[in-house]
Design a protein that fits this description.
By secondary structure, the protein is an all-alpha fold. It is built from 14 helices and 2 strands, in the order H-H-H-H-H-H-H-E-H-H-H-H-H-H-H-E. It has one domain.
Length: 313
């Protein structure tokens, strides 16, 4: 234990690079979330999609926890897990599913471009990270580029679904920040697994009501989209994501999500035959540059003796 701690203190860059790599893998998995959700809610009720994805993932999580004989989290860890669960298992999936029934996936991707900046802000309150001014400038430039790209593309108007996505961004950011901090002691996949299991009692009744009112008749494409958000977006991608946050820091690794709107666009080209314009390429280059600058910006890491939330909560 002492030897590994010594290695981390001598060469923190390796830990940061590993964190960025895992963070990118997580974002890669997240990049199809909105398109897949959009396809799913064309036939299925948004409440069922938003909560059902967590329910399916919770079954996988329970199996993993059981066969690896994981110990129950402590009472303090359960409180942190409640924040994670509210943010990334209940809040974000439900709000984004509702919005995707009313907005194109590309529009949603633009709004979610704010997530890295909000995650960095959440990190200040939840995880103890203290980004430098250079980091804030780089993150702001990247986020403003994403917003500007959306406005130029004609997706800049606000409506109730936009507000739902903005709230989804806020709750997800705090879920990411809390989960990234907790993953340092509980483990990345354990965090999302316990958070999924914790949310099950809240999901069951709304899913039953939704099924009785809307049924479950849907096309194969809708079920495929639901399967993706359940298995990949809500479970597998979080393994890599929380491990990356724990290794590289919430604020720095969270910036990698600036790439997510453009990964979604690339997927639309490969899967849907759409084209990427020069404006899209230019915006992507600016975002990548801001991520690179943010990666090299000083970020103070504040250690906590326990996994409990900071006292200001």
């Amino acid at each position: 234990m002492k030897y590994s701690q010594r290695i981390r203190s001598v060469n923190p860059k390796n830990s940061s690079d590993v964190g960025l790599m895992y963070g990118f893998l997580g974002v890669l998995g997240f990049s199809l979330t909105l398109p897949a959700t959009r396809v799913a809610v064309l036939d299925l009720d948004p409440i069922w999609v938003g909560l059902g994805r967590g329910f399916v993932a919770a079954i996988l999580a329970a199996i993993a926890l059981y066969f690896t004989r994981q110990k129950l989290p402590s009472s303090r860890q359960w409180r942190s897990l409640a924040i994670v669960s509210l943010g990334v298992v209940l809040g974000f999936p439900l709000l984004s599913a509702w919005a995707m029934q009313r907005l194109p996936a590309a529009h949603g991707a633009v709004v979610l471009g704010l997530l890295p900046l909000v995650t960095a802000i959440a990190a200040v309150f939840r995880a103890g990270d203290r980004p430098s001014r250079q980091f804030w400038v780089a993150s702001s430039i990247g986020s403003l580029t994403v917003i500007g790209f959306g406005i130029f593309s004609g997706a800049g108007y606000l409506q109730p679904a936009d507000l739902a996505l903005l709230i989804a961004v806020v709750v997800a950011a705090f879920g990411y920040a809390e989960g990234g901090q907790l993953a340092k002691t509980l483990g990345g996949w354990q965090v999302i697994s316990w958070a999924l299991v914790l949310a099950v009692p809240v999901e069951i009744l709304p899913m039953i009501v939704s099924t009785s009112q809307h049924g479950l008749t849907a096309s194969p494409a809708a079920w495929l989209g639901f399967a993706y958000v359940s298995v990949v977006s809500q479970f597998i991608a979080f393994f890599a994501w929380y491990h990356g946050l724990a290794k590289g820091g919430v604020a720095r690794v969270g910036q990698i999500q600036l790439l997510q709107p453009f990964l979604t666009l690339i997927a639309s080209v490969l899967l849907l035959g759409e084209t990427i314009t020069p404006v899209t390429m230019g915006a992507a280059c600016i975002v990548v540059a801001s991520v690179a600058v943010g990666r090299r910006s000083p970020i103070k890491r504040v250690s906590h003796c326990s996994t409990s939330p900071p006292s200001d909560s």
